[in-house]
Design a protein that fits this description.
Blueprint: H1 14-25, H2 33-46, E1 50-54, H3 57-67, E2 75-79, H4 88-92, E3 96-100, H5 111-117, E4 122-128, H6 137-146, E5 150-154, E6 162-163, E7 166-167, E8 174-178, E9 191-195, H7 201-208, H8 214-218, H9 238-249, H10 251-268, H11 271-276, E10 280-281, E11 296-298, H12 302-314, H13 330-335, H14 342-350, E12 351-353, H15 362-379
Parallel strand pairs: 2-3, 2-4, 4-5, 5-8
Antiparallel strand pairs: 1-9, 6-7, 8-9, 10-11, 11-12
The structure holds pyridoxal-5'-phosphate.
């Protein structure tokens, strides 16, 4: 048996809506019928005030870096344990990146760590909801308000997660989601910018439409449109939006399937044997729901993780690790003095993600569990 790490899941409605875009609505460029349907769906389901679909979460983060007006002299606090796209958009604007360490228990950053790093130059704090889970986000949002700092939620993984009954994505001035093929809800490549800060709403639409007021023109608010600000082509085509709309309509079903797999792992991996071998388990932070994006655990050390991944690979199971902490990356360490961030490095060395996708068969799930349990009962050194 071969178990892939991920297989994109189709609801069956994707091609139907793409055909409708092509043959019935007859608009292929962006901001048409299906883009608006997606915006309405997201606003209605999550109460987001303003939504703009983008071509990727990276694009949405680039829009955030423009909307927060960052530039040389500004400091941006970002976790080191994240994907490059949390940082790159702010580097492109010439800002200084200040990397934060992870919390001991969770890969996310804590308010305490933010307070340690904040200076009078801190302009934006980017919080990443690792594994789709929220941690101290209400307190972090309050802290940002008190200190006049913009909060950006990199919510790439956190569609449909709630924190104290509020969806993640509704705490920041701006929040960004990803619909990349590896995420819970997909459109190949795709993303979303949520704008909660009223003062940014009008400008966001202009930046989205290449720096023009075209959207206002189509609503009949101005009688011609032109170049009014900086911007780029951040909006997705109607083909992408049609695909995404099909996925959004089935979000409960998709997350339900992920939940079953996540819970099977949680209940059937041999936690006693793993604990004996020094493994730490994934925990759900207080006040956060789970959207079942990732099932992970942390090995005792990098050596144990390497031999586990090798063992699983020999059994034709693709389990993976990530992220290489960014403060140690070639690009950053070449150009900056690097502070030690021990916990981020530990997650980087020890974290393992098991295959998790909605179309996984029961046989595949059991095969993964059997082999993980075999490894920790027979192959892993005891601590
Ligand atoms: C996936 C991911 C991104 C990038 O998303 P794209 O849509 O591929 O641009 C950014 N940040 C985090 C935390 C991610 O997991």
């Amino acid at each position: 048996m071969h178990v892939a790490f991920n297989r994109p899941y189709l609801t069956g409605e994707e091609t139907k809506f793409i055909e409708e875009a092509v043959n019935v609505k007859k608009q292929l460029s962006g901001n048409g019928f299906f883009t608006k349907e997606c915006h309405n769906f997201l606003k209605t389901k999550y109460g987001f005030k303003h939504c703009l679909l983008t071509s990727s979460c990276t694009d949405a983060l680039e829009m955030a870096s423009i909307l927060t007006n960052v530039g040389p002299g500004d400091e941006i606090i970002i976790p080191s344990f994240t994907f490059v796209s949390s940082a790159n958009p702010f580097v492109l604007r010439g800002a200084k990146i200040v990397f934060a360490d992870s919390d001991k228990q969770f890969p996310n950053i804590s308010l305490k760590e933010i307070k340690r790093l904040k200076t009078s130059k801190t302009k934006v704090i980017v919080v990443v909801h690792y594994a789709g889970l929220g941690y101290e986000i209400d307190k972090i949002a309050d802290y940002c308000k008190e200190n006049n700092i913009y909060l950006v939620e990199d919510a790439a993984q956190s569609i449909n997660t709630y924190f104290k009954d509020k969806p993640l994505g509704s705490f920041g001035d701006l929040s960004t989601f990803s619909f990349h093929e590896t995420k819970n809800i997909i459109s190949g490549e795709g993303g979303l910018l949520v704008i909660n800060n009223k003062e940014m709403m009008k400008r966001a639409e202009i930046i989205w439409e290449k720096g023009t007021n075209r959207a206002a023109f189509y609503r009949g608010e101005v009688n011609k449109y032109g170049w009014v600000d900086i911007g780029s082509s951040f909006l997705p085509s109607e083909l992408t939006s049609a695909f995404l709309y099909a996925q959004l309509r089935h979000i409960e079903d998709i997350l339900g399937k992920r939940k079953n797999i996540w819970e099977y792992y949680d209940q059937n991996i041999d936690k006693k044997a793993m604990q004996k071998a020094g493994v730490n388990f994934m925990e759900i932070p207080e006040h956060s729901t789970n959207n079942y994006h990732i099932f992970y655990f942390c090995c005792k050390d990098i050596h144990q993780r390497d031999i586990l991944l090798q063992f699983l690979k020999e059994k034709s199971i693709i389990a993976v690790f990530h992220y290489l902490s960014l403060h140690k990356s070639e690009f950053f360490s070449m150009n900056n003095e690097v502070e030690e961030l021990k916990i981020a490095d530990e997650f980087s060395d020890c974290l393992v993600r098991l295959p998790l996708f909605p179309s996984m068969t029961q046989e595949e799930i059991e095969y993964v569990v059997t082999n993980v349990n075999y490894f920790f009962n027979n192959k892993a050194e005891q601590k």
